[in-house]
Amino acid sequence: MKNTQSEDSKIVRLMQLYIENRCSDKERDELLSWLKQTDCYDPIDSILNTHWERIMNEVRTPDQLREKELQNEFELIRQKIRGTKKLKKHKPSGLNWLLKVAAVILLLLGIGTSIYKLKDPAVTSITYTEFKSAHGKIKKIKLTDGTLVTLNSGSSLKLPNNFNNKSRFVQMEGEAFFDVAKNAEKPFIIESGDATVKVLGTSFNVKAYKEDKLMAVTVATGKVMVNIDAMDLQLKLLPNEHLSVDKNTSEFSKTTIEENNYSKWISGILYFDKEPLDDVIKELNRKYDKKVILSCKSCNQQISGSHDNKSLEAVIDAICFTTGLKYTQNGNTIIIHE
């Protein structure tokens, strides 16, 4: 199955992200899906040619014994991807082609140990340290570069073991406030879903829960560059600017705020600004670690207001008062209904 030029460009981008250790779980799955769908591995050779020279400068060439092992591993990969389906015969052009495949496919699928060491043989493959904040909890983390991160409940932060070597790249899901240590030579890059936030030294809040309809970035100090690939959107945010993006409709708004209420969750304060009721319920589930269920067909109200360290029941009362809804409670489960 021959790819179009645009599809090839997209695969090149995904491979490039993976090689640079900036590939998200979603992008990795997309690349793997492409590998599973293709009937022939010939396109891999042409796609990688553009980037192969740079890759070769970063890896060591295996000896002949390792080359034989690699051939066996690649055959296992082909069988794993295609199952029992007969594969089109591919005639690799020797070790150079195998290295190209190993640099991406073997790493991507995690089979074998074919991640050739960097120039320093003592350097191992990239691994991640993950920090998680449980529901109802807030976690503070100090990174090796001096950056301070506060994770909201139900959030996670992943750091590669080469963080702060040549770059400062992290992956985040959920919500966090970052107070980034300044380093003009090493931009701080946060990837969360389709969004990428790049800064040099600043403080800001990122809210990007996978299950929420909205994602948002709010800047306290400094400048922040936000990229959202799915929308082909790139925006620069300044202090006291707030960006809100609807992930379903791709609509976004950039506003200037007088007071930064969006990071008050650090002090235990809930703040909603025209947020979908469904997202508000998810926020309550994360903060209070209880089961709140929204059970109605037309509950599409937007919620605004702040709640200062109030009980869950008090917050539910306020929501029902403003929306005209009702709720029933059975143990730790609260059902909001019409």
TrEMBL record:
It holds the Pfam family FecR_C. Residues 132-224 form the FecR protein domain. Gene3D superfamilies: 2.60.120.1440, 3.55.50.30. One of its GO terms (molecular function) is sigma factor antagonist activity. Residues 270-336 form the Protein FecR C-terminal domain. InterPro entries: FecR, FecR_C, Ferrdict_sens_TM. The chain crosses the membrane at residues 95-116. Keywords: Membrane, Transmembrane, Transmembrane helix. This is FecR protein domain-containing protein.
